[in-house]
Amino acid sequence: MILIRSFYANAKQLDNVQNILNKLLVITSYYRKVPHREFFYWLTIIFNRVDYERIQSVGPDRACAEWLLKNGASVRWKGFSEHLKDYNKLPPEENRCYIQAVDATDSGVTHVGFPHFVGCRYIDEIKLVRCFYLYNNALPLLAAVKDTLVTLEIKDCKSITDEGVRSLKNLKNLKTLKLGGMPYLEDKASLKKELAKALPNCSIELK
């Protein structure tokens, strides 16, 4: 517990630790057929845990941004053109900013942290690429932003299966859906038909 507390003592150290964990997982996952929930996964759970008192204190968007940046993702604020990647460059807490886009490429986000999306009312774009800790149970939680989400990209998340992809049918406002690099999808043709039927106004790419 002393070691875990020390991670939170300095945001820069926390970012460095998470980056090291992600790099280690990239190496070990090369030799695995299906990722296992080993030590690195359980340590990542700690970094994804939801602090509801923090959400009440600073608001859902600020708390969500803190979660994402701590785990190696980036955000783009509403009204801005550039993504913010550096945790230490978050605006002062008294400045109310709203997340519009999320890029979780090569990040350590897991389903445990997805409840952070609840209350974020402006997120219209999410990119989940090479998220090695991402499993099927994370995708239904995207329903928290279903009213605003129009663009979703999920690629090279190796543990996602047909079950996870089917849960995306509930995201009725999607206009663009890009899927690929998921080796355990059993029937891509049928999946694409199901998605197209459920999301008639969405351009779907499934490779």
TrEMBL record:
Domain of life: Eukaryota
Protein name: ATP synthase subunit s, mitochondrial isoform X1
Organism: Pogonomyrmex barbatus
